Structure prediction request, 917 residues.
Amino acid sequence: MTNTSLSLIQIRKLIQRQNLFDQLVLVALLMAAFSSIVVTGGILWILISESVSFFSQVPITDFLNLNDPKWTPLFDDKNFAIITLISSTLVTTGVSVAIGIPMGTIIAIYLSEFASSQVRELVKPILELLAGVPSVVFGYFALQTVTPFMQQVILGVQIFFAPGRDEFDYYQLPGFNMLSAGIVMGISIIPLISSISEDAMRAVPKQMREGSFAVGATRLQTSFNVVLPAAISGIIASYILGISRSLGQTMIVAVAAGTQPVYTWNPLEGASTISTFIVEVAKGDIEHGSLEYNTIFVAGLALVVMTLAMNLLGHYLSKRVREVY
Amino acid sequence: MQGEELDLSAIVKDVQMRKSISIRKFWDVLFSFVALSFLILGLAILLLLIFQLFVDGRGLLFSWSFYTSFPAPNAAEAGILSAFVGSLFVICVTVLFAIPIGVAAGVYLEEYAKSSSSPAVRILTDFIEINITNLAGVPSIVYGLLGLEIFKETFKLGNSVLTAGMTLGILVLPVIVVTTREALKSVPSTLKEGSIAIGASKWQTIWDLILPASIGSILTGVIVSVSRAIGETAPLITVGALTFIAFLPPLPFSDRFAPDPQTGELVRAGQYGLFDWLFSGYTVMPIQMFDWVGRPNPEFRVNAAAAGVVLVLLTLVLNSAAIFLRIYFRRRIKW
Amino acid sequence: MEVIQDQDTQVKAQVRNFSFFYGKNKAIKDVNLQVLDCKVTSMIGPSGCGKTTLLRCFNRMHDLYPGTHYEGEILLESQNLLALDPIEVRMRIGMVFQKPNPFPKSIFENIAYGLRIRGIKDKNVINERVERALRDAAIWDEVKDRLKDMAFNLSGGQQQRLCIARALATDPEILLFDEPTSALDPIATASIEELVINLKGKVTILIVTHNMQQAVRISDYTAFMYIGELVEFNRTDVIFNNAAQQRTREYVSGQFG
Prediction:
């Protein structure tokens, strides 16, 4: 040993100091990891406590009222039938899902099972760029591009089936409508669905595919009969995330779907969703602790409950589907 | 005779099989065609969206005053200066708030919790993991409600850069945690063992070797979060971001002016402190755009579109940088 | 197990009634073994026999992973190293791994890292110790002009010698080798073997090898392990020419493996 080597006593002292430091770091890291629980707790706490104070002023029967529902918390004649907002939220989400899930899934299958690696390397960044477009810009696109286009389409369809009427006899798609907003929302969730689904499909072991190819199946048959079932839980997870994103999507609907709380299930009309309502109220001045202030939290709670229900349903489905296969 | 009959049926079978193969192959081709047209549609929409913004916003996009003006009641004079600067300040807070917490949480979950033998830690870790997954699915506007109640009302931070930055910080936290974990996971355990074997402590190993080795991937996650935070609108409206801001947050140690009590003229009244900008009012790019889109006066659509171009370009640049970095680091590190 | 008598050497480490568990699975079963000072001791046996597992107990690598535990003792001189702080153990006992695992740092920093974490800050001391370690590992001439280069740019054999230098830089009392040549070509293997032979007399070496010829070439003592048990331990020539146990004779003559 040279004279620069440490003695055992020195080493032990060094280790003692280092161990103490490591312990302090560990405490800090643990606190950081714990922060996520604090955030969740905080969200639940504020939503529930504000909602409790809401329900101390508004009977729950008004909130759950389904007969001639109205949502007018800011008027003198106050009505609080949440179904008004839920219906439009579900309609826009429905349109979004009808666009986003089939397209996202087909793109995912193509990228995972058909495309060469060069195509994949080229396409995935483009999808990521699409995913990165801010939602308010998508909203602008829905309002300024998709809505005029859909107005022409709807008119065209009517003329095709019932030609020769006066122009004003045809249904005119309003400038604010849930259809355009939903379509653009659907486009905005395609990257999310396709990337998560593709990851799930690519994780399916090669041997399973080879088994299917070996008995003479084509790529498409292999994709649908072997890969899709094997990757089903990941695919469903991507759907759940896409639906959650659509339920909570705010700026696209706030810009393009209208701000009037109307009870309707018709995507050709405009109506305020839950998140639009929150934004509309928050844009103005609201007094902390007022009934209006409570209202946006109860609306937020409704949104979270819907998202949660969606998640539970998804997990249940995913489990059921896995049992079937 | 019999032989010929057998031959015939064999030929029929052969023809049937070939037919079935070509039909099935046709479906393969058709599927590829459909999928490719969807992909091209996606790309076309991205291009169309940018094109539309460009066309609509061209009236202001190329005038310098649009970038150096505050919002104004007159569309032609209204600019994005305060929104652009506000976005930068808010993002600063978001990054400073979310990176340390997110990376630390990721390090704990990936490097400490996984190797713990204590069942209590295991349960806690599982709980935190499920929790983070669920947080990623919580609608962004709900984070706005959280920021409104906690930062703005309970901590009395008001409509400030700090409130906005921290609200967005919480919003992007799950993204940073998840990417940090992915990045740490890709560092091979042999490297860790090599360091531990010469007597480094766990934290020394993480700090000196594992974090530097995974910094590229973590950075990618951070850039993606920043790009998301720049485009987020709803939570900031909820925490009360204003739309009409005709001033910039004060830089540290810049001169502060106040009206003179006698003359009413603005005179120098001291200096701003290091942190005064945190408590300043603000607006951000997407809120400014949202405000302009919603104006009844259609002239403001031009402002909205021009702001949209700036916003889209910002996010495109950031996301491209993230993609580029990811490819670069994937190529560079060969374990 | 009889104690091996050797006049000129002392016992550096002693494994006593030692068992090791992965969960409930007993991977090492009641092993007794002596490691002699400044000699090369090799551990051989068919794959899965526990030789690497036993080696990794010497510097407590298993502590990194949950669900493992030790029974019995491993004495380092007179202290049970299972009762010491694992970091102290690893500061005193170095290890070289199966696959070269240089740090993603420069060649110089790879060696200096072990010194830095021991709190050595003096630049001259670090420079001098890095050079000495690189010379001891017979790689100095190849890298002396490119110490700032990334270690990844070295060849596999150079990387492994760099890892040996990294371990030598901190003056370990025992140096553990876990199949150090299994990922290398024959030429690189020969240079590592030569290096190990040259280290004899300077440092105590414990080496796991999958290659019986390698054990013959480089080691003074050999332990043969089979399914977690130590079957036989003796001087290398005895194990290979005149083993006491039937199973050892079968293994070294290639009848199973």
